[in-house]
Design brief:
The N and C termini lie close together (6 Å). 36% of the residues lie in helices and 19% in strands. By secondary structure, the chain is an alpha/beta fold.
Length: 218
């Protein structure tokens, strides 16, 4: 079994980035959505990245963005991946990919018809994040969905040749259980925080479980 891709999302300070970038995670995420509590200004992230120079790939999270909004962010932050968390359409994904030339991941909220939603983006999305559906919230709720559904999402993504991340309510207490479902990727935010700040202890605990799980299966 290959090691799951681990994304540490919701970095909102230089201190957060210092902690997450010191880990063995593969991706670091930033929320560029103004109405969310983890929103960060692209100018700020640009300064942090120049100072720390993280080795991980950088992911920018947007909700129903304009191409201009993404391009403006890219002037400050050297993003590697665009993650779309809203009601974006296939044509919007195609336009964004053509405009910025970067991979685009699409968030799918777990619900009846979630697999069908993935099929809509077949051949267009470069990866998926399956998150909990919580009324009035786009993500970052710390609420988990029914993980029994993970294999179905993972298999659909596999058939499309792209990775499938699991998000929502993952923390040091349940990471072992999550890993039994063998997700391609793990997307963490509130589960690696104490007092809304990233916690190096929680990050290390989760990544250690990931590494040990891979070693035990290999």
């Amino acid at each position: 079994m290959k090691e799951p891709i681990v994304k540490l999302c919701g970095n909102r300070s230089l201190s957060d980035l210092a902690k997450t970038s010191s880990s063995h995670a593969s991706h670091l995420g930033f929320i560029f959505v103004r109405r969310t509590k983890r929103y960060v200004r692209p100018e700020s992230v640009g300064r942090w990245v120049k100072k720390i120079r993280p080795k991980q790939k950088l992911v920018g999270v947007f909700i129903d963005p304009t191409i201009e909004e993404i391009e403006e962010t890219l002037q400050f932050v050297p993003l590697d991946v665009i993650q779309l968390h809203g009601n974006e359409t296939v044509s919007q994904l195609l336009r964004i990919k053509e405009a910025v030339g970067l991979p685009v991941w699409k968030v799918i909220h777990h619900q009846s018809g979630g697999i069908d939603q993935m099929d809509v983006f077949r051949g267009v999305a470069d990866g998926y994040i399956v998150d909990s559906k919580v009324d009035g919230a786009a993500g970052g709720t710390g609420v988990r969905f029914d993980w029994e559904a993970i294999p179905s999402y993972r298999d659909e993504a596999y058939n499309q040749g792209v990775p499938c991340f699991v998000a929502g309510g993952i923390n040091p207490e349940n990471i072992k259980e999550l890993l039994t479902y063998r997700p391609d990727g793990i997307d963490l935010s509130s589960g690696i925080e104490i007092g809304e700040r990233k916690d190096i202890g929680k990050i290390q605990t989760i990544l250690k479980e990931v590494e040990q799980n891979v070693a035990s299966i290999s």
